[in-house]
Each structure stands twice: as C-alpha cells, then as structure tokens.
Amino acid sequence: MATLADYGPEVRAEVKQVREVVSNLHQQLIKWNLVVWTAGNVSQRLHTADLMVIKPSGVRYENLTPNSMVVCDLEGNVVDGSEAPSSDTASHAYIYRNMPDVYGVVHTHSTYATAWAATGQNIPCGLTMMGDEFGGPVPVGPFRLIGSEAIGKGVVETLKKYPKSPAVLMQNHGPFTIGKDAEGAVKAAAMTEEVAHTMWAAKQLGEIIEIDQADIDKLNDRYQNVYGQH
Question: How far apart are CA 67 and CA 69, in angstroms?
Fold first, then answer.
C-alpha cells in the first residue's frame, strides 16, 4: 500500500495546502448551519495525483486541524493520516473516479434540504437563484445504505440526469454537492439549504410557481458565464 512518502515533493506540497483548505472549510459548514455534532464532511481532490483529502470519521468540528485531515487514494485507501477517514469516503472516491471535472465533494444533513430528501421530493425550481445555481430543480437521488460506494453511485447516476445541478438530495439521507473545488461544493451546500428553506416556506403559503425551462436555461447561462468577476 502506497504512503505519502512514495509521492514526490509537488504532491506532498499540494497535500499540505489542501489539508488546510479542507480543514478550514469544515468551519464554514458550522457558520452556515449545515451540520451538527460530527455529521457531514468535506473533501477535495488533488490535481497532482489521484488522491483526495477528507475529514476523519466521528471527530468534532472544533477538534479538526489540517493535520487531522486524512489523505486517501481514489479507491478510498488511506495514504496518510492518523485517524480513520469519513464513513462516506468510498462514495466521495466513487464520485471523483466517475466525474473527472469534480474536485470537491460535500455531504451535510442540513435541516430543510434533508426534509425534502426525507419526503423523496425534488426541490422545484421556483426561484431565479435556483435557475442560476442549479439549472432546474434540486433532484432527489435513490435510497442507499452508508458505508460503501453505493451512495456515490446514486449521486453520479442522478447528476447525469441533471447535468447542471451541483446538488442531489439522497433519499432518507441528505444532500451531496459537488464543485470545481471544495469551496465550490461548500457554496453549493449552503445554496441548497437556502433554497430548500425558501421553497418549504413558499409551500406553506400556496402553490409554487415553477419557472419555465427556457427561462431557467437563460438564467443559468448568464450566471455561469456573465455574472461576477472574470
């Protein structure tokens, strides 16, 4: 089994940098009320090697440090770290192997997004910000048990049907989000909870007015290609 010492200085330097990024981003999950206790995790894939950095299993967020982050290969085998990796490691690894443009994955049990997952419902696209960020509804994925790559398979299968969405709500479990890096996946997790909460509130007032797909496509194109700094 390979260890981090088997990799060159460029890889080890990136591992050090990504450990800091991933450790710090876990604090963003707390800031945006996306996790409780030890639930949830962030990972980021390396550019210099087929490795990823992920949260250790069952460790409280206030005790996380860059050194406590675990380095795994894309089969989920530990390459460096003194702690056992997240119980979702195999699923993160499966997503990276099968979605080569993805370099960040986040899983949370945020309240409103998970409520939609518990009822097996897509979050309908009734907001322009949903068109911007998700390109349509936030889809529900299939029920899968924790501890293998089965959840990762469900995430990939679902997102292939909704290629513009960076989020999927795994039924009876919670949201998984992806990004071009871990920060992008954390942003998607925060946006998922925001629209889940708003669309839940809208349902209490009446029927949600869904946006036509043609308008969603225009919103998404503007947001992805024009909005912000370039």
Answer: 5
pLDDT for 229: 78
pLDDT of residue 1: 81
- Provide the CA 135 distance to its chain's centre, in angstroms: 17
Distance CA 52, CA 59 (A): 18
pTM tops 0.85: yes
Task: Give the Cα separation of 74 and 102 in Å (integer).
Answer: 13
CATH superfamily of domain region 4-225: Class II aldolase/adducin N-terminal domain (3.40.225.10)
* Range 101-108 average pLDDT: 98
Cα radius of gyration rounded to whole Å, the chain: 17
3-state secondary structure of 49: coil
Reading the block at residue 171, the tokens are 């039924």
SS3 assignment, position 37: coil
Query: What H or E segment, with its residue span, contains residue 196?
Result: helix 182-205
Asked if residue 19 has pLDDT above 90, the reply is yes
